[in-house]
Amino acid sequence: MDRLQPLQHLAKHHPQLISGILSLIPATGSLARGEFITLIVAEWLSPEVVSQLSPGILLEALASMHQDPDCPIKNINHLVQQMPAESLPAALNIVQQICDEEILVRAFCQLSQKMPELLSEALEIIRQLQSKDTQIFELQELSQQFPNILSETLAVIQEMPIDADRAWALCSLAKHNATILPQALAVTRSLQDKDEQARRLIALNEHFPETFSEALALIRSIHDEWSQVSHLHGLSKQVPAECLMDILSTAREIQDVSERSLILCRLTHQFPEIGLEALRVIRQIQDEHSRAIRLAQLSEHLPADLLPNVLELIRSLHQVSGQSQVFRMLCKQFPELLPEAWAIAHRMDWGFDRVTNLCTLAIEQPELLSELLTEIRNNRNESWQVLVFARVAKYLPSELLSEALSMVQEIRDETRRASAISYLMRYLPSDLLPEAMIVIRNIQSEAVRASAFRGIGESLPEPWLSKMAEIFWQIKAPYYRSHALLGLLPHIGQSNIEFVDWANYLDTLAYQKRETLLALLPDIRSIVLKLSNGQAFSDMLKTTRDIHVQWP
To answer: Of 94-108, 195-209, 215-229, which range is least confident?
Structure first.
């Protein structure tokens, strides 16, 4: 199946070629063809594209899916949804042959939404299911389109032997039909397990805020603090304004200050007036790391009037990493803090965290980019230099690109130098491209030099394409040269290339693995069509099929 992956890639980007691609897998009904069609139709293509495929391809895909015992139900569901009306009778014949009861009922329910005359048959299949959960799910799905089956859905739910399952089913149904809410509440209230009761009420609260007070009262009656905290996390996401004091009263009773502060931080996002109390609780956290985490969470939506208090607490932290984390969050809302955040980041030990913090802050305040380049240049750690180029290259203003290129030239390790120039080159103006090409040309290792070609920007000016081609042809080893061509190929398609030159490039591509070459077909199709007629590309596909036959 691995060798079909490039063909999947080609079909995904050029669905108009699917019929031709299928001719490369001529054995109708074979496992390879079935898997290929299933992946293309069910997973790779958008519903809009699938709806434009021929009915024959859709039906073949459906037939392949129903024969596969491991085929996900969602794939058949997706395909049946896209089936055109004229293909529904044929699709029904295929669906009726499905042996797996869950796949059968899912497909039947999908078909019945397009063919209402199948509803009674779909209901009969649902009644014969062994799994009550599947029964409920399918009935819930159908009842949204056919409200007249609601009573049958409720009857099936009432037959469920476990109260918790029945409560779950009714609560799920109530989300789509508010008339079910009284029954869902009645069954939920009858549950003996308070944790299960709380979970059901919290789920209902998302759709029915009037259940909030009952859910909170139940949580207060739970004696285990860990369970209380867990449920309050869920309930605090959506709090009616009139219930704020009630949930605050419950949160204040939590003994663990770290957990109490988390609830208060979440409430602050909805009710900013809670921020000061949240801050007071955060001050009580003994562990500095935990305190820094809570300050960062509070800082996501910090009321402006609390900023002085938060700054005072941050500055009291001894851990510079914690200070830097919180300041980085605050700078998104309060850019005037960038200078202090920059200074704090400089107090961190050299390492990944320090470099990424400095890059993030420099992107937020571009005038710091020059200082960042100077600092990373003086540090002389080539790994950190490459990391900086990876993070900030596209944000560098034109006046700093020359300095950045000079830094790249100073990197001694060829692999790191190639990585750095690949990050930088795509953003260089035309007047700096000659220097960048010299950097690539001077890389001694052909394998590393080839990797640098991958950084060529999407729009390389045509005058420079020929110069890059010169460096390309200086790579002696055909395999490494073919790797370099992967970066050059998109630009060749945009240029006025001669047929003889294209033949040489194709000869180079032949050193790549077959699956890599097939994956490049979308990129080279425009070149082939430009240099010949449409028949040439069809001939390429036919040749590929012949190769698969001789060397599968």
So the answer is: 94-108
- Sort 316 into a burial class: Cβ within 10 Å, 0-12 / 13-18 / 19+: exposed
Matching residue, tokens 């060798």: 3
Under a CB-based contact definition with an 8 Å cutoff, are residues 406 and 379 in contact? no
Write the CB contacts of 129 (distance below 8 Å, at least 6 apart in sequence). Answer: 101, 102, 105, 135, 138
Question: Which pLDDT score, from 0 to 100, does residue 1 have?
Answer: 46
Are 126 and 105 within 8 A, CB to CB?
A: yes
Q: Which of 350, 372, 370 is nearest to 360 (CA)?
A: 372
Q: Distance between the two ends of the chain, CA-based, in angstroms?
A: 10
CA–CA dist 282, 185 (Å, integer): 37
Torsion of CA 373, 374, 378, 380, to 10 degrees: 10
Q: Which residues contact 78 (CB under 8 A, 6 or more apart)?
A: 42, 47, 50
For 104-136, the pLDDT digits (tens) are: 777 777 788 778 887 888 888 887 777 777 777
Contact 443, 452 (CB under 8 A): yes
Name the DSSP letter for residue 349: P
Of the chain, the percentage scoring pLDDT greater than 90 comes to: 38
Burial 127-158 (b: 16+ CB within 10 A, else e): eebeebebbbbbbbbbbeebeebbebbbebbe
Taking the CB of residue 430, how many other CB atoms lie within 10 A of it?
A: 10
> Which pLDDT belongs to residue 549?
55
Q: Rounded to an integer, what distance in angstroms lies between the CA atom of residue 361 and that of residue 397?
A: 16
Query: 3-state SS string over 462-489?
Result: HHHHHHHHHHHHCCCCHHHHHHHHHHHH
User: Which candidate, 208, 214, 132, places its Cα nearest to that of 174?
Assistant: 208
Q: Are 444 and 414 in contact (CB under 8 A)?
A: yes
Residue 509 identity (one-letter amino acid): L
> What is the structure's pLDDT at 426?
84
Residue written as token pair 């309050």 = 232
Q: What is the DSSP letter of 42?
A: I
Q: What is the pTM of this model?
A: 0.62
Burial of 18 (0-12, 13-18, 19+ CB in 10 A): buried
Name the E strands within 78-172: none
Q: Which residue has the tokens 């914690």?
A: 322
- Report d(CA 38, CA 43) in Å as an integer: 8
Closest CA to 461 of 443, 442, 437, 485: 437
Rounded-to-integer distance, Cα 518 and Cα 436, Å: 31
Q: What are phi and psi of 227, to 5 degrees?
A: -65, -40
Region of 29 (left: φ > 0; alpha: ψ -120 to 50; beta: rest) is: left
Q: In the numeric block, which tokens belong to residue 485?
A: 């061509």
